[in-house]
Amino acid sequence: MSENILVLGSTGATGLEFLRETLPLSDGPRLTLLVRSRSKLPQDLISQSASKVRIVEGGLSDEAKLDEAMEGVTTVISFLGAYPAFSYLVTRAKPTPIANSFPLIKRVMKKHGVKRLLALSTPSHSIPGEKYNFAQWFTTQIFPPYLMPQGDAEMKAIAEHSADDDFDYTIFRVPHLTNGPADLKVYAGFYGPDFKGSQSLSRASLARWAYQEVVNKQWIRQQPALGNY
Ligand SMILES: NC(=O)c1ccc[n+]([C@@H]2O[C@H](COP(=O)([O-])OP(=O)(O)OC[C@H]3O[C@@H](n4cnc5c(N)ncnc54)[C@H](OP(=O)(O)O)[C@@H]3O)[C@@H](O)[C@H]2O)c1
How many distinct structural domains can be found in the chain? Predict the structure, then answer.
């Protein structure tokens, strides 16, 4: 069966790279985009690929829109993420509106028999047994929760909701995202002496890796950290 991927966060910088990576492929997937505003989508690319794209406008907590979007879907992938906000740096408040929608998303997935879930998260969500050198420890464990308390809490909570054995999940934990090219090599693994990834990752190479993971299913029920190398 050919893939029909529900993309959450397709209007964000990485989500847009996923569209640019997959829509031009002659044997590529069909995409369903659940968006808050379709005006943020690249109109040229969408109209060139009209037969492969379905757009549903709605929020993440709108059950009827989620239900409509999930129709015929084989895989859900989330590039959702929190925007940095200075107010949270000051107040230290940590609301998690995106993660709070995951129980509903999973309920609608179950209703439609969709088992495959891939979600973007953070390496500050660490996996038991991981070991860090000083630079990795500082950039993954200290910097995000201190400087972006709300965003960090949001990305960790997305991972916690997604690591659900009722699903074939893959949680990909990303470092600093850049606008570098798609052909940079991506290392996937766990922090420790063998970890080869750097602390940066181009969004375009991440999008390419994510689609390959949809196809190859190498990291089912795992939570690899990624980085260019
Ligand atoms: N180490 C780390 O922890 C780390 C490192 C790098 C990146 N990140 C996270 O990775 C995410 C992805 O990066 P990016 O640059 O591709 O993202 P981005 O351009 O910030 O895009 C964020 C996406 O999430 C959506 N979104 C945000 N809040 C939402 C809400 N309440 N309801 C529905 N959709 C919502 C946005 O939708 P709209 O277009 O409708 O606003 C957009 O599609 C970032 O947001 C960041 O939090 C974390």
Answer: 1
Q: What is the CATH number of the domain that holds 80?
A: 3.40.50.720
CA of 120 from ligand 1 middle (Å) equals: 9
Confidence of residue 200 (pLDDT cuts 50, 70, 90): very high
- Closest atom of ligand 1 to 37 CA is 40
Query: Range of 56's domain?
Result: 4-228
Contact 142, 193 (CB under 8 A): no
Q: Is 80 in the pocket of ligand 1 (CB under 6 A)?
A: yes
Rounded to 5°, angle at Cα 18 from 13 and 21: 125
Output the CA 80–ligand 1 centroid distance in Å. Answer: 5
SS3 annotation, 17-71? HHHHHHCCCCCCCEEEEEECCHHHCCHHHHHHCHHHEEEEECCCCCHHHHHHHHC
Residue-wise pLDDT for 38-83, tens only, equals: 999 999 999 999 999 999 999 999 999 999 999 999 999 999 999 9
Q: Which atom of ligand 1 is nearest to the CA of 14?
A: 16
Neighbouring C-beta atoms of residue 43, cutoff 10 Å: 9
- The whole-angstrom separation of Cα 122 and Cα 172 is 8
Joined tokens for residue 102: 């995951």
Distance CA 73, CA 5 (A): 6
Residue 1 confidence (pLDDT) above 80: no
pLDDT at residue 203 in the model: 98
Under the banding of pLDDT at 50, 70 and 90, the label for residue 2 is confident
**What is the spatial distance between Cα 79 and Cα 76, in angstroms, rounded to a whole number?**
10
